[in-house]
Design goal:
Length: 473
């Protein structure tokens, strides 16, 4: 994710799906050289110059000695990535700096950070003709491009019961060349309304105001937000735990993303992780981000698990986890097994990219192998769900609480010709045996109310005390 004279700026979001590769020869990851990194200010290697088309993602890159031009492409359209779109979402402002060459010089793997999702690309002889023609930013073209983009890249139409062709046809008659920005936004928002996928959204600036369409947030968060109580709820949970549940000395740390302590004079360990990242305060665009996040997380977990070494069991509370950096999700799971294990697998439909089994390596720091009670809710999403999926592969982990939200895929951000952004799910993340929990969410082994709408703070407190054996079921 380091800056490289603009190399791959922005649109290489960590996710996948889509277009047919230009070379049908089966490849494996072992065919590629070891990862290399281009650092800020360094010259791009000769092996990267040329024109490349990604497998999935809808990207073409024209890389010369001194410039990189990135194009957004579908079957019918192609345009250079608008500069204006890069400020609309954090992910589009990131650069990729990790690459792996293929000996033939015809293939390339790109990554944002080591061990992140891989972008496979194939060399092509020339820009597709549509890239030479360009794409307009009028309402009709924007609508048609958006419809084609989502149709090519969204991975879960069948799972979520969406008839995309029918939706598009029903909306098409409402598109006019002179429609206002607001009307166009409403029309596109209607296309994705009801997807029930919190990773699929429309973001745009309309008449100077930033607008957003997103659903699939479960029941708890929309209820609290509509009532204007989300901040009050979060404060209530953390203050209540520290004052009434946890032993003296509990710590709310890591930029307020982690709360840990013990219960009943050390008999039970308790760790709540709000987000898979953001611990260090280092900006994600900073080259130091990855290591800074690891350093803070590892230090906190070493201290917490050392304090819990003699605990009968540990409660790992992901009931309010909003996701984040998948490498942290794997790092969480690694703290509860003394051997490496297969945590989950990822694949991208329609790309010929082999399924990738994500192994959870043994942590270098303190490990707890006693019983773990994992707590989730309908708020648990994305990176929180990935951690839960991996943890469920361990024999010492029992899953309690409520079913998770069911949005796993890393968000794939795509600009529209007018600078707006569509984000969508195009990557399947499944258990090692191939079972996917997209849309359904991961059901707990033991049902336990966590955030009842009439008393979400007290309900969470009761859930923690129940797990700790301090309150009857």
């Amino acid at each position: 994710m380091l800056r490289m004279t603009g190399f791959l700026a922005g649109a290489l979001l960590v996710a996948s799906c889509g277009s047919t590769p230009t070379d049908q020869t089966p490849l494996t990851r072992d065919d590629f050289a070891a990862p290399q990194q281009v650092r800020a200010g360094e010259t791009l290697p000769d092996s990267m110059t040329g024109i490349w088309r990604s497998r999935g993602y809808g990207w073409v890159f024209d890389i010369s000695d001194d410039a990189v031009r990135q194009y957004q492409i579908t079957d019918s359209y192609c345009f250079e990535t608008p500069e204006a779109s890069k400020s609309m979402t954090e992910t589009l402002a990131l650069d990729y700096s990790i690459y792996r060459d293929h000996p033939s010089g015809e293939h390339l793997i790109l990554q944002l950070l080591p061990e992140d999702t891989e972008i496979w690309a194939d060399r092509i002889d020339a820009l597709p003709p549509a890239c030479e023609v360009g794409t307009g930013d009028d309402p009709v073209t924007v609508f048609q491009y958006a419809a084609e983009l989502i149709g090519e890249h969204y991975a879960f139409f069948d799972v979520r019961g969406i008839d995309w062709k029918a939706r598009v046809e029903a909306a098409r008659s409402n598109v006019t060349a002179d429609m206002s920005e607001a009307a166009l936004f409403d029309l596109l928002a209607g296309l994705i309304d009801g997807f029930s996928d919190s990773h699929t959204k429309l973001i745009g600036e309309v008449d100077g105001e930033k607008r957003r369409q997103q659903d699939g947030l479960g029941e708890t968060l929309p209820f609290l937000r509509e009532a204007g109580r989300e901040t009050e709820w979060l404060i209530g949970i953390f203050v209540g735990l520290q004052q009434d549940v946890l032993d003296e000395g509990a710590q709310h740390t890591a930029n307020d993303r982690i709360l840990w302590g013990t219960i009943n004079n050390g008999r039970v360990g308790y760790i709540q992780i709000l987000q898979m990242g953001g611990f260090s305060g280092v900006d994600i665009s900073d080259p130091a981000f990855r290591q800074a996040e690891f350093d803070v997380f590892d230090a906190v977990m070493d201290e917490a698990l050392s304090a819990m070494a003699d605990a009968e069991f540990v409660i790992l509370d992901l009931s309010n986890n909003r996701g984040g950096y998948d490498a942290i999700s794997r790092r969480v799971a690694s703290r509860f097994s003394d051997v490496a294990f297969n945590g989950y697998q990822t694949y991208v439909p329609g790309t010929d990219v082999p399924t990738r089994m994500r192994q959870i390596e043994r942590a270098d720091g303190v490990i707890y192998t006693g019983p773990v009670k994992l707590l989730t809710s309908d708020v648990t999403v994305s990176g929180g769900e990935i951690a839960a999926l991996a943890l469920r592969q361990l024999p010492n982990v029992t899953h309690y609480g409520k079913t998770t939200r069911g949005s796993f895929s890393t968000v794939h951000s795509k600009p529209l010709p007018n600078g707006w952004i569509i984000e969508l799910s195009n990557e399947v993340i499944a258990a090692p045996d191939g079972q996917s929990f997209e849309e359904t969410g991961i059901p707990p082994e033991v049902e336990l109310e966590v955030f009842p709408l009439d008393e979400p703070v007290e309900g969470h407190r009761r859930a923690v005390l129940t797990l700790a054996g301090e309150e009857s079921d």
